[in-house]
Design a protein that fits this description.
It is built from 4 helices and 32 strands. By secondary structure, it is mainly β. The longest helix has 13 residues. It is elongated.
Length: about 475
């Protein structure tokens, strides 16, 4: 963050990708790597989704000033944090020289669809009482700027509980919000700053960052532990029981003094059970085991210049989408290919050569008209087979079919193949005697006059109909062999 760019490193610390500062996103601060291979982050007050080449896929509306968090949810929507200011009373801790009313800076959590339309929002001024403030920020308020009331730094949507979890740094508070009603389910943290206490328990965390929900339902976040003694940062996992209003720490990793960070920071639970810790302003990123052994450690060396990292994420590689597909009983060339379906079943196998998973959409077109559309779930590094029953479709031999397949989360990565259905029918052999002669011409002419296209051998040019052009082709084949 302090160097104003985002970077991907291999396990040895070698850079393999970094943001281009000349693209429209500018000084891009990374917050998330997506399963479609794109990256999410924010820069200069706007939230972005971009591809790895810096091309902007999505940009938040210009009237929303994004700070601290911009991420894409499992609902394919974007959540962000922006500031809002209201005039409120000056608390008793204020300097006596200040006016009775001062501007308080709170936060708005907003959800946007992929078109930039607002779907959901939640304003701290609407749901927190003005008596819920940290007296420290009233004491240091000088009147030169807004009083920093909430200073939220993360928002997380949990699809399992249909709830939104937010981290309110200056109140040392985590709040769970019911998505549908927008009502507060509970607040957890420093009870001195609460008008209503949900959990009468002190977990002794302060100024926390990047709250998220694990697969087991527990909370994981970076406890900056600021203004506490000793001021040592840590990563903590919290289990809670809403029915009994209990909460307790089930795992923690305390950082040494040189890795502690008064602000920023993140914890990620990895697939191997370890935890990746971004130690914010200290310039350290480390992976620790459940037993608190250090498995990997990165330290930024910038000639002793202040270097902070904002967020980090562990991924197998930069390409979660790498697939191909093959058709069973496929012959021919790219220009002229055929499939001979067994029992009228078109069989295709998708070969997933990447760590990504998810739904893939497949569509079969007949003469450019969609006749089948469905989906199939693809697992990492596995092959998956789909079957399409062609027996219900009247497909003329030689007509062009197209099979298209693409990942649901990345339609731009579509792959397709054109082919014809192989048939043992000899085109032009209307009487099926194995030879082409004048009798076939007569039969074809009579079928055309009768508007009877039931004999597939009569469509010599594979245009889906039988007419004088097919007779001309049949005569040329008989006379000249082509």
């Amino acid at each position: 963050e302090s160097l104003d760019f985002s970077i991907a490193l291999d396990m040895n610390g070698n850079p393999i990708w970094f943001t281009n500062k000349e693209n429209n996103a500018g000084d891009f601060i990374f917050t998330q790597f997506l399963s479609n291979g794109n990256v999410v982050g924010f820069a200069n007050g706007s939230g972005y989704e971009t591809d790895l080449n810096g091309n902007i896929i999505f940009e938040s509306p210009g009237n929303i000033g994004v700070h601290h968090k911009f991420y894409k949810s499992t609902k394919n929507t974007y959540f962000m944090i922006s500031s809002t200011i209201q005039e409120q009373y000056c608390p008793e801790e204020c300097n006596d020289m200040l006016p009775d009313e001062i501007p308080w800076q709170g936060d708005i959590f907003t959800e946007l669809d992929t078109e930039g339309n607002e779907l959901w929002s939640w304003n701290t001024f609407d749901y927190f009482d003005s008596t819920e403030y940290n007296p420290y920020y009233a004491q240091i308020y000088t009147g030169d700027y807004e009083m920093d009331w909430t200073h939220s730094n993360s928002v997380f949507y949990d699809e399992n509980t249909e709830s939104v979890f937010v981290s309110i740094r200056n109140l040392s508070r985590i709040t769970k919000i019911d998505y549908a009603s927008k009502e507060i389910i509970w607040n957890l943290g420093q009870t001195d700053f609460m008008s209503e206490i949900y959990y009468d328990i002190d977990l002794n965390f302060s100024q926390q960052h990047s709250v998220k929900v694990l697969d087991n339902g527990n909370l994981l976040f970076f406890d900056n532990h600021r203004y506490l003694t000793p001021e040592l940062s840590r990563c903590i996992e919290v289990e809670y029981d809403e029915a009994n209003h209990s909460a307790f720490i089930v795992w923690e990793h305390e950082l040494p003094l040189e890795s502690s960070s008064g602000s920023r920071g993140e914890c990620d639970r990895l697939e191997n059970g370890n935890t990746l810790i971004t130690a914010g302003r200290s310039g350290h990123i480390l992976e620790v085991t459940p037993d608190n052994e250090i498995a990997w450690h990165l330290e930024f060396d910038n000639s002793e210049v202040y270097t902070s990292s904002y967020r980090s994420e562990r991924i197998p590689n930069l390409h979660p989408i790498a697939y191909s597909f093959t058709l069973a009983n496929f012959t021919g060339s790219i220009e002229n290919s055929y499939v001979d379906p067994a029992d009228d079943i078109l069989e295709a196998t998708i070969h997933n050569n990447s760590w990504g998973d998810g739904w893939h959409i497949y569509t079969l077109l007949y003469n450019d008209v969609e006749i089948v559309s469905d989906n199939i779930f693809i697992n990492p590094f596995e092959n998956s087979t789909l079957n399409i029953d062609l027996s219900t479709f009247a497909i003329n031999s030689g007509s062009i079919l197209t099979l298209e397949i693409y990942p649901e989360n990345a339609p731009e990565k579509i792959q397709s193949v054109d082919f014809s259905i192989y048939s043992s029918v000899l085109l032009g052999d209307l009487n099926n005697d194995g030879t082409l002669n004048i009798l076939d011409i007569v039969i074809l002419a009579n079928l055309i006059l009768a508007e009877d296209s039931s004999n597939p051998a009569g469509d010599l040019n594979n245009d889906g109909s039988q007419n004088i052009l097919d007779i001309v082709l049949l005569i040329n084949i008989i006379l000249y062999g082509f």
